[in-house]
Amino acid sequence: MIIEHIDAQLPGTVTDRHAFRGDQTIVIAKENLLAVVELLYREGFQLLVDITAVDWPERPNAQGAEGAGRFDVVYHWLNLASQERLRVKVPVAEGESVPSLTGTFKTADWFEREVFDMFGIRFDGHPDLRRLLTWPDFPGHALRKDFPLDGGDVFCMEGCTAPYNNGERGERS
Amino acid sequence: MDTQALPDNVLTTQLKKVVNWARRNSLWPMPFATACCGIELMATASSRYDLARFGAEAMRFSPRQSDMMLILGTITNKMAPVLRTIYAQMAEPKWVISVGVCASSGGMYRTYATLQGVDRVIPVDVYVPGCPPRPESMIYGVMKLQEKIERESLSMRKDHIARFYESLARQEALQAEKGLTSQQAIREMLMDAGERGVGTIF
C-alpha cells in the first residue's frame, strides 16, 4: 500500500521491490533517500526501528553504477497507526557516503554510528560520527566480510582464519 | 642447648609459614563480575554453599580493600585496560582466580570483541573451568589457591607482582609515545608478544 503511494508520489524512485509473507522491501538509490524518508514520515512511518548494513563483497564494486555498491544500508520502519512495516535498502559502494537521517529521527544517531563502526560507511550530516562499540583506533571494521572472525588473533593456531591484512597490522581509521 | 630453658608455649617455625597461614585463611575477594559466573558466585557466597567456611566471605567491591580478584565472566578487549587498572589498584599481596571458560580462554566467544583469556593481560593463579562452574567448583578453586599460597615464598610473590607493574608502565609509555588508546596499546603489546612467541604481555 505504501509502496504504491511512493510510486505515485515519487515515480521511478523504487528500483526494486519484493514482499515475503507481508514483509515488504524496497530498494532505492541514496540520492532519493531523504525524499522517500520525508514521504514515509508524513504517511505515518514514524518509528525507525533499526539501521544496519549488509556487506556483499562478491558484487561488482562499480563506483556509482546503478545498484552495484558493495554494501546495502538497511532501514526498518514501523507505522504505529497501521502496524505496517517497511524495509528500505540503499545500495552504496565502498567509500561512498549516505545522507544522515538524524535530522528527522533522533534514534538514527547511534544506529548510524554503529553502522559506521561495523562497516565503515560514512553518513553525511551526522553530528558526531564516532565509533560506537569498538575503541577509537580499532583497526578495520568488524562486520565486513573480509574482516577475520577473531579479529586477526596473534596466538591463533593452524586452522583458524587468515591473519588480518596478510599479517600487517593495518591502517587505523 | 638445654631445651628446658624455653617454656612449653614457644614454637619455632619459618616466617613464611606463619605469614602464609594468615594470608590463605583471610582472603578478601573482589568480584569482577561481568556475566553469569557472577550469579553463580552469589550462590557460592550465600548460605547453602557458604564461602565463609574458607575465610573468603568479606566481598569488597573496591579493589583497595581486597586481595583476591575473582574474574567472573567474559572480558572484552574494550574491558581489558579496566581489568588491568583494577588489578593494579588491589592491595598487595594479591591473587587472581579466573572463573569460567570465558575468562580463562574466551570460551565460546572466539571473536574480535573478546579477550581470549585474561591471563594474556594479568597474571592468573587458579583457573576454574565450567560454563558457569558450579559453586562447588568455585570453592574448590579457592581451596586450590589456599594450597598454592601455603607453598609460596614471600619474595616470589613480590617479583610476580613487580613484573605486572613493569608491563603497566610499558603500556602507559606506549600510549603516551604513540598516542594510542589503552585498548590499542594492549593490542599492540599482544601482537608483539605473539611475534615473540610469548603468551602474555607481562
Verbal overview:
- The complex is a heterodimer of chains A (173) and B (202).
- Chain A is of the alpha/beta class and 173 residues long.
- Chain A folds into two domains: 2-133, Beta Polymerase, domain 2 (2-Layer Sandwich), CATH 3.30.460.80; 142-173, no CATH class.
- In chain A, 17% of the residues lie in helices and 25% in strands.
- Chain A is built from three helices and seven strands, in the order αββαββββαβ.
- Chain A has helices spanning 2-9, 33-42, 108-119; strands at 14-20, 23-28, 47-55, 71-78, 85-92, 97-99, 122-124.
- In chain A, the strands form two sheets. Chain A has a five-stranded mixed sheet with strand order 1-2-5-4-3. A two-stranded parallel sheet of chain A has the order 6-7.
- The longest helix of chain A is centred in the middle third of the chain and has 12 residues, at 108-119.
- The radius of gyration of chain A is 18 Å and the shape is globular.
- The N and C termini of chain A lie far apart (43 Å).
- Chain B has 202 residues and is an alpha/beta fold.
- Chain B has one domain: 3-Layer(aba) Sandwich (Rossmann fold).
- Chain B contains seven helices and four strands; from the N terminus they run αβαβαβαβααα.
- In chain B, strands 1-2-3-4 form a four-stranded parallel sheet.
- Chain B is globular and about 70 Å long.
- The model of chain B has no long low-confidence stretch (mean pLDDT 90).
- The A-B interface holds A 133-139, 142, 147-155, 160, 169, 172 and B 77-78, 110-113, 116, 120, 180-181, 183-184, 187-188, 190-191, 193-195, 199.
